[in-house]
Amino acid sequence: MAADSRIEELLKRPLYVYDLPQELLSGIALKGDDQTVPVKEEPTPETKTPSDEAQEHAIATSTSCALCKVSFAHVQDQREHVRSDHHKYNVRAQLRGNAVLDELQFTKAIGELDESISGSESSEEEEEDGADQLTTLLKRQAKISQVVEEGQESSTPKPGKHPLLWFSNPVLPTNTSLGVYRALFTNAEQDEPRHLAGSLTKKQLTPIYAQKSNGQPQPQTPSPHIFMCMIGGGHFAAMLVSLAPEIHRKQGGIEERQARVIAHKTYHRYTTRRKQGGSQSANDASKGAAHSAGSSLRRYNEATLEKEIRELLQDWRQQINEAQLLFVRAAGSTNRRILFGQHEGQALKQNDPRLRGFPFSTRRATQNELMRCFKELTRVKVSQIDEAALAAAAAKQQEASKPSTPKPQQPQKPKLSKEEEAAIMHTTQIQALIRRSKIPALMSYLTKNEIPPTFTFQPSDVQQNFRCPTPLHLASNLDAPAMVSALLTKTNANPTTTNSEGRTPFELAGDRATRDAFRVARHDLGESKWDWEAAKIPPGISKAESDARSQRERQTAEEEETNRRKAEMDRLRQEEEAAAASRVTKKGGRTLGAGPPSVEKTAQERREEEARGMTPEMRMRLERERRARAAEERIRRMQQGQ
Prior knowledge:
single chain; alpha+beta; five-stranded mixed sheet
């Protein structure tokens, strides 16, 4: 009983791939051989086994798009395609009853734009602009539909590998599995599936205890790390992050594990053509160079952004070469050319075996988004699925689906009903509003369209809808506490609904603010509203209690930052005084040396001399401290009336 309770407690807390408890590592093993799906042949209904069918019901593994007639070798490519303008255009065209375009025809129709015109990586204003652009293409499509119908060809779907690897352990319940992203394993490790459990054990790292500076510089403990970067729509973010967790001691002796960022940098330049979509370079390539003031500014910003990014990657070249893996998101030929194009001091190469794409949906390139993606990549997924029931249902479905006559090689998909089309349209709109945190717009949309609280996203077999089938699941998974509170208190959303993994919305929350939103809703709605124990929500707390705790944590963090800055400033002041004393030595009131007085160095020369030999991270920290000292000095003079 004690061991079972211990395992249950371990599964409730977030599990980190590189620091797993010994209880879970002992006896861990990769699940059945159906983890790897053949790439060359797709099993037919006659050759599929019950375990294959059950796995397909539990986890989506298809790597082709029947709508756009495109196949993919890897699931990362399929995910990028679902977010692309080509797929979004064909979805809208199908809903309107128009013909869809294949990849070549769509490329010709849009004039080879290489930036997103759908607004998935831009601001709200740019999103509306992208929607207008797609509407224009839909109108244009009516003129070329005749050619499209004559030139369409079908592609043979090719199955691929699911992004998650599932492990089992004798100490876990029979319906519980642990999922780790396949991308965290090297290509050599993935080629030996029998040794993946051993590879996972070897990846465990000893946590590093954070040390207080006490006025002295603390050396960075070397540890394995990865490189992550995103670029799109004029936004760029990059980060070097250590894989070994860092332990911070909080008040009361509580230990908290945090990610240790070695270096990070973000850039943003105005490069996207507002109200028209696409980058300036793409427009110049298709229509010729424009001569407006805005086009000149965008060309300058594109060149500046390229120069800044390449200089940064060149400064980080040693750390990038030492990184275990490289996670890069670069949509469009322009962005790929900036990162992978041939240039002096090139740090990233397209054929690098460490290179990976993000195996899940991402948002705008920011520092916070990179940290969210790092947590998603390195967090172990806990799945609770009754595999025996799935296998029985799959066997029954296989028996019922055996045809008496051979099926055609390319069966036509059944046409969607009006209700199914409406459900898909509502799913797209609701998910977009939740991701953009548009609470009033979401409430208005639900009321106007009379959407019930029990609404589930369609189609249900999509990987995203598999994990987040309801609006409350999606809001919790995105760590949006305000949206969670609105759905619970204003739309009567049911917190006890579970996804296909058997997890409630509360169990998908990734931060304390989102979890507190559930607890505050429990306090406000009352104990009789829902079965809160079934929803896995802890006892309720008031809004005042939640705000007070957040305020205390914020004050503690501010005090720690103030103490750190004060200690760092004292250290820099002592170093400057020591340097000044070593340069000038007085003897008898006169300066040593019979020669002419030396020319005093300028402030810029002194800064360059102090920064010589420092790493880019140390230079940035030194510059921040200089600016902080200058600001404090100005404030002191203002207070003294100078």
